[in-house]
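Q: what does this look like with flavin mononucleotide bound?
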Amino acid sequence: MKFQEIKNNIYYCGLNDCDRRIFDELIPLEHGTSYNSYLVKGSEKTAIIDTMYPPKTKEYLKRLVDNQVGKVDYIIANHGEQDHSGSIPALLEKYPNAIVITNPKCAENIKSMLHVPDEKIRVIADGEEVSLGDKTLKFIFAPGVHWPDTMFTYIKEDNVLCTCDFLGAHYTFSDVFAVESKELEKSAKRYYAEIMMPFRMMCKKYTQMIKDMHVDVILPSHGPVYTNPDYILDLYADWTADAPKNLVTMPYVSMYNSTKEMIEYLSNKLEEKGIQTFKFDIVDDDLGDLAMSLVDAATIVMGTSMVLAGPHPMAVNVAYLAAVLRPKAKFGALIGSYGWGGNLFGKIGELLAPLKLDLIEPLQVKGKPKEEDFKKLDEIAQAIYEKHKSLNLV
Ligand SMILES: Cc1cc2nc3c(=O)[nH]c(=O)nc-3n(C[C@H](O)[C@H](O)[C@H](O)COP(=O)(O)O)c2cc1C
């Protein structure tokens, strides 16, 4: 298939991976993903910005041949992770005169992770420029969004910015240009939640920086290309804002429905008070949905049954994940059910501690909740309402 031209001799040469269902062995994918690679033809030199996920290398190289790419001078590695840099060794074999241009941290990564030889790498400094003749590539280091080795590549004359994983989405397409839709917004949010949210402050900084650059086109390394940069930048401005929304996220695990009954009761009470809730069944539901709700939630309520003298291991897993995603939630509560004894919340509290949540009195119930337990749940609902009110959320 012919490469799609994005602007003045800048082409999309990436690939869709429609069948991929999980990323990083952690993140369920609703739409598969795309591995974006860009061919930039200057009057003197040709560059490829980011390459390909290794299992797709053969198909990728065939596309380059089919599109008569006879010469590549520079391979720009914006980030060392294998889904973008994984095909560098194969590209170097195909184009032996090419050299890899990257930053010092990425150089270390592609040497250790992909065994790219030292002599094939040219290390550049932050802000350095490389000429392709009538086009200039400028490299902007962007550590933290999402690896320490991440950088952006700015194609100056065309006012086009390749943002690597930043502003990406796990999404596939037949036309590379973004069609603004709820579906795309959801994919971009899911991607932000799982990959970028732990670095929210950095995301905020780079969102503003790119806004101030007034670029014409944003080329991320997953998902579609944005010719209306404000669309994705405004979404990022919303997701990275300091203030949470009037939302309570409620992940729970329940073997015999006692904890579930409490979660459902509390959710109804909160909704009656005008607070939005998101109930998340830890065993059955999609972790991406939980991560997305954590982008906005002001409060996290975790529910767990007691297993082997502690919280259910699946709840431990989610508490750990919630903590490392570093959401902006301010308040928390723990509820659960036990049979005879143990420490139901100790481990969960420990795991969530880095979030510094203002915790409401926890509730543990022996067996199935009774009338007095529902009264306590009413009190928890009221406490959450007051906390949200204190932030003018309700
Ligand atoms: C495998 C297993 C291990 C359990 N271990 C404990 C335990 O160590 N301490 C305890 O108090 N209850 C224990 N229980 C009992 C449950 O915590 C109790 O039935 C609780 O009400 C279940 O809540 P749920 O209906 O929300 O799952 C265990 C139950 C199961 C099935």
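The CA atoms of residues 294 and 327 lie 6 Å apart. The mean pLDDT is 97.
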